[in-house]
Design brief:
The chain is α+β, with helices and mostly antiparallel strands. The chain has one domain (16-123). Helices cover 13% and strands 31% of the residues. The chain contains 2 helices and 6 strands. The strands form 2 sheets. It has a 4-stranded mixed sheet. The protein starts with 15 loop residues before the first strand and ends with a helix.
């Protein structure tokens, strides 16, 4: 989807650039550049991710070059090299067309205690 305006929201991690209202729901917007340790992206698109418990997260990306389905058997557990506090944000790694793929754990991009606040914002 095309990026909407996102309002800052206190208490979010650095990679959450704000909150946008998408179809009446307050949705955190994650900057893919900051999330991966780089500079903020100049978002041309948002990819809406749905977490295991039906919450939404918008991932701000520069552009989308394609969408593919990756069989779960192609995924591998994270190597210990990727351990540390950020490792909870990723669940697996793989490769596709000689490119590294890292699988995001969308439900962990926003701290649990802030989901409740976002629910309150959505209902008001």
């Amino acid at each position: 989807m095309r990026p909407l305006s996102a309002a800052p929201f206190s208490g979010m991690p650095d990679f959450v650039s704000g909150v946008a209202r998408i179809r009446g729901t307050a949705v955190p917007v994650v900057d893919s550049g900051v999330l991966t340790g780089g500079a903020p992206v100049r978002a041309g698109r948002w990819i809406t991710l749905i977490t295991a418990n039906e919450r939404q997260v918008a991932l701000a990306v520069q552009d989308v070059t394609g969408i593919r389905t990756l069989p779960s058997e192609d995924l591998q557990a994270l190597p210990s090299l990727l351990g540390g506090p950020e490792s909870e944000l990723y669940s697996a790694v793989s490769t596709r067309d000689q490119q590294l793929l890292v699988v995001l754990e969308a439900s962990r991009l926003v701290p649990d205690e802030l989901w409740e606040q976002l629910t309150e914002v959505s209902s008001s």
